[in-house]
Amino acid sequence: MSDHDDLRSIGVPFGASGGEGLTALEFPFRCRLSLAPLVAFWNQAAVSGHPAKAALAKQIQDELRQAAELLEPIADLSLLERHQGLVDLLMSAVFPPASWDRDYAAATIPFHFRSFYATPSFGRWLTVEDGTFEGLNLDREVFFSGKLLRAYLSIVKKFYGIALEFEYPLICTRQDPETGLARHFQLNIDGRFVEVRSIGELPPLTDEAQQYLRAHLTDLQVWMELMPPEHFEFHGFSVIHAVDVTDQEVLSSLKRDLIQKESIISDARFHRLQERLRTLLRRPQLLLGLAAIEGDQVFLLNNGCTLERHCIFADSDHYSTADFAGSIYARSVQEGRLLVIEDLRSYPARSAIEDAIIQRGVRNMVVAPLYYQDELIGTLDLGSPTPGDLHAIQAMKLGEVLPLFSMAIKRSMEELHHTVQAIIKEKYTAIHPSVEWRFRNAALNFMQQQHAGVLSEIEPIVFENVYALYGASDIRGSSTFRQAVIQADLLEQLHLARAIFVVAYRQRPLPLLDEFAYRIGKKIAALELGLSSGDEATLLDFLRREVEPLFDHLQAFGLGVCEHIEAYRTALDPTLGVLYRRRKDFEESVTLINETIAAYLDAEEGKAQAMFPHYFETHKTDGVDHGIYIGASLVEDGKFDRLYLRNLRLWQLMVMCGVARKAERLKERLRVPLETAHLILVQSTPLSIRFRPDEKQFDVDGTYNIRYEILKKRIDKAVIQGTAERLTQPGRIAIIYSQAREAGEYREYIDYLRASGYLTDDVEEVELEDLQGIQGLKALRVTVAMPPAVADQRLGPEAVEHEMVITRS
User: Fold this and answer.
1) What is the DSSP letter of 174?
2) What is 479-497 written as a DSSP string?
3) Continuous H helices in 180-229
4) With contact defined as beta carbons under 8 Å apart, do 750 and 780 qualify?
């Protein structure tokens, strides 16, 4: 059933009012201008007892006897002009003379926005020559609907006793003729002098119709069908008071604008923000500037750059915080408050920044720091070419919007981070947090070149003059163990296979079955002598291609054969399809060692980063080795002292003691009895490292530094000079060095760690046999204390740093 069918069902004649008037947006009620309600007010005042008011009321009554036409509905507005003096007296009840020149107020025909009487301010700001209003914030349809609904609410209140409230804000926006800036006025309608009258028989409104009406309050067609407009008309006049709400409206608009995603990185939207601030502060020449700050980088917006790329990086000029040292920006940030500079020319602490601003024609400035969750995130500045144009009282209006600008910058910086991270992942993959700043700068430079239209590769990442530390925990004899377990598994699998053919030959003495048993026996005999390179692949290929395909047929040879085939298949790993028993035990033992050591290193590394940032990486093979780089070029601010190198060397030695203890206590959980040996390589000469994009890792840079990489690969095989004894031994740490002063430094650490219970008194100093291309290496070999009482003792960062101060001094 349609709404119109519903209207018929409750006895309302559909079509009585005609829908054409509604769609044509013509106000359907007859409205008459009349001063009668105002005259009634004065007649009441004549008997109110108030002497002054009564006297004025009697004067008005006397003059009205000579102008009776004013008591009738007024169709010709010239009638008001002929009785201007009397009209002024009548209107004094509505427009107080004391505020005549100050107030924004006007009188209009009911529901018609055209004034016939207005204060000078209202006429100058809100109407055009014929008295009609301009600049309303509502479109024609919404405005018409609001008027019509307000009219019907007046009708149902008077004639049907239904009180419903309805308010909709009317904002009129006009341009200030002096400044060219927008001014916003809220219009408040006073209907005290409007009377609604019924014409003819009052349309009935049953309870059922009222319920239907309440369910369709915003459907104006329903209103018009229930109460046709021709049954009502309005007499009198409306009074409209306008209030300047420019500040409130601008603040609301700024809030709405700054919530939008591209509020500060879209050219049009940024300039709209500037225009709104000009309106808020009544300064048509005001210039808005924004800066985002992250680390030591500053991104300036609206500083002669074009905003069009929707990225805070692409749409800004880029500087470092050092470029602003001594400027009003630095002062505002340091003091954490808004600054007002009346005239930059007379500013006593002027820097090159202020001189550059003056050159652009700005004399007067306001600078404010922007914070997000108590963290400095940027600055906002306003400039004017006129000294004293912006002052502290005006700047107070910025209090509400500064947090919104902070949020906008925060959002834009997050967008920048997402873009940078995408470039880093594409060009570099995952990066250690300590050096991420350098990769971020490279990504930003790459973006800047792309923005400038320069097609180039991303810049190389090189850190010069850094100190290297290297440590390794190697599983002793892992290659021999691995070869032995592979050999044992293969032998068992071959024996199981041979047994199948031996049993099958007994059941059916086919020569070929005996030949297979012979061939497998020969392979077993050869394998028992040793496992050579390629043997594993050759043997497994033989079993899969020639032996196993026969099993399905051999199962028909009897129960004994079936049992041996089942035993063979049961022994194989279901995933790999090979016998993987001893090898699995070995691999699981290696994995457990590696994971335990790596987890311990990662946990301790987090504490070391808190002492001083450095690059750290680990590699897991048969054991775990780690590399560390520390130096001035690795930190963003470039501040470094050798104290932190010594601190990290002591920390590394302490951690290697912890690794040795972890490995020792782990032995009882291993399926294969594996031992670990530990070493530290001392490198005092600084070197350079370069990120290799193809390998996604750092490597030493330059021919001279390659010796260090070669040394790392060979020292685990080093032996003591004149003997066959390996330098690295389980439960001990070998500290390999080449200079006497390096040994002296580490002897201090050893002495301290012996006193702290990390090491025993057993300390050896040995010389090493020359390695290929490397001569003159020596080593200190220390034994880690293993008692349970000290196994879990560790020095915290504070104790280590305290010890380093002592040893340095």
Assistant:
1) E
2) HHHHHHHHHHHHHHHHHHH
3) 207-215, 220-226
4) yes
Within 13 Å and on the Cβ side, how many CA atoms surround 550? 17
Q: What is the pLDDT of residue 519?
A: 94
Beta strands in 360-461 (DSSP E): 364-372, 375-384
The per-residue pLDDT for range 12-57, each reduced to its tens digit, is: 333 333 333 344 468 899 999 999 999 999 988 888 767 888 888 8
* pTM reported for the whole predicted model: 0.52
Sheet holding 115-118, edge to edge: 115-118, 104-108, 238-244, 182-190, 170-175
Asked if 468 contacts 628 with a C-beta cutoff of 8 angstroms, the reply is yes
pLDDT, tens digit, 9 for 90 and up, residues 468-523: 999 999 999 888 899 999 999 999 999 999 999 999 999 999 999 999 999 999 99
Nearest one of 478, 473, 471, 487 to 674, comparing CA atoms: 478
Q: Classify 25 in phi/psi space as left (phi over 0), alpha (psi -120 to 50) or beta.
A: left
Closest to 189 measured CA to CA, from 156, 143, 232: 143
**Phi, then psi, of 599 in degrees rounded to 5:** -65, -40
The H-or-E segment that residue 783 falls in is strand 778-784
User: Alpha carbon of 728 to those of 82, 368, 389, 510, 600: distances in Å?
Assistant: 118, 62, 78, 57, 21
Residue 256 corresponds to which tokens in the numbers above? 């709405």
Task: Tell how strand 778-784 and strand 182-190 pair up.
Answer: unpaired
One-letter amino acid at 247 equals D
Model confidence at 626: pLDDT above 90: yes
Residue 773 CB burial class (10 angstroms; 0-12, 13-18, ≥19): exposed
The pLDDT score that the predictor gives to residue 152 is 92
- The answer to whether 749 and 698 have CB atoms below 8 angstroms apart is no
Q: What angle do CA 802, 806, 809 make, to 5 degrees?
A: 135
The span from the CA of 87 to the CA of 74, in Å, is 13
For the domain 249-426, what is the CATH code? 3.30.450.40
8 Å CB contact between 44 and 37: no
Q: Which residue has the tokens 């079993």?
A: 543
pLDDT value at residue 15: 33
Give the C-alpha separation, 640 to 632, whole Å. Answer: 5
8 Å CB contact between 757 and 790: yes
Check residue 203 and report its DSSP letter: P
Please give the average per-residue pLDDT across 182-202, as a whole number: 91
What is the CB-side half-sphere exposure of residue 237 using CA atoms within 13 A? 26
> Do the beta carbons of residue 301 and residue 307 sit within 8 Å?
yes
**Domain boundaries, given as residue ranges, for the chain:** 3-130+148-170+184-244, 249-426, 478-584, 588-808
Range list of H helices, 66-186: 78-82, 84-91, 120-126, 140-159
- Residue 472's DSSP bridge partners are 625, 679
pLDDT of residue 610: 87
Q: Rounded to an integer, what distance in angstroms lies between the CA atom of residue 36 and that of residue 71?
A: 6
| Per-residue burial over 716-736, b = 16 or more CB atoms within 10 Å of its CB, e = otherwise | bebebeeeeeebbebbbbbbb
Cβ-contact 366, 338 below 8 angstroms: yes
Q: How many CB atoms lie within 10 A of CB 429?
A: 10
> What are the CA-CA distances from residue 170 to residues 175, 240, 245 (Å)?
17, 11, 11
Q: What's the rounded Cα separation, in Å, for the pair 302 and 324?
A: 17
pLDDT tens for each residue of 418-443: 565 555 455 555 555 666 666 666 66
Residue 378 and residue 346 in contact, taking contact as beta carbons nearer than 8 Å = no
Q: Which residues share a beta bridge with 294? A: 297
- Position 752 pLDDT exceeds 70: yes
> How far is the C-alpha of 339 from the C-alpha of 392, rounded, in Å?
8
Parallel, antiparallel, or unpaired: how do β-strands 182-190 and 238-244 relate?
A: antiparallel
- DSSP-derived secondary structure for 617-670: EEEEESEEEEEEEESGGGSTT----HHHHHHHHHHHHHHHHHHHHHHHHHGGG-
What share of residues in the chain are helix, strand, coil (percent, to 5)?
A: 50, 20, 30
